[in-house]
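Why does residue order matter? Because the sequence determines the fold. Keep that principle in mind as you read this record.
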Amino acid sequence: MQNQKRKAKNTAETVNAKKNYLYINHSYGSFLLGDNIEKYIRIKHRTVKTDKNDYYKHCYYFYDYSIEAWCISSFIDVICCDKECWYKGKNLIGMTFDALLQLLNSVPCQSQVIYVHKGYKKNGENQIVYDFDKEGLQVWVWLGKIVTILITKYDPEDEYSDPRK
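Structure:
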């Protein structure tokens, strides 16, 4: 029991030692895309319930990092940030979308409007979702400000190819 507590503390200290910071196509802080979630499970977290039809059956919310890790077969596929997401010394959450475009020096490859239900007796939001495929980012914007960032790896093999070409 004592060894398990010591291991949990050491893992948490290792993750705490590295600032939560976005590394495009790689990680957010110590949470590496593609890593087995078991590496992080000792850190204080809760399992996020998902609909049985959801693609991501295993989701974990890590309290100290305010992130969700969405997993496929126990491997981290997406990291979701909605409280803070640091990149180049700036918090992307709350930043204007125009400021993000300048910071990334990139433009989205596509966008769409998605209605986000906010709960019983609450008004929902029509958020604009921008995909930055090469950066592995999906950026959710409401009223011109970033509210959520989804981080994943860019895989050129997954790109849509137009059958007419």
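The first strand starts at residue 22 and ends at 23.
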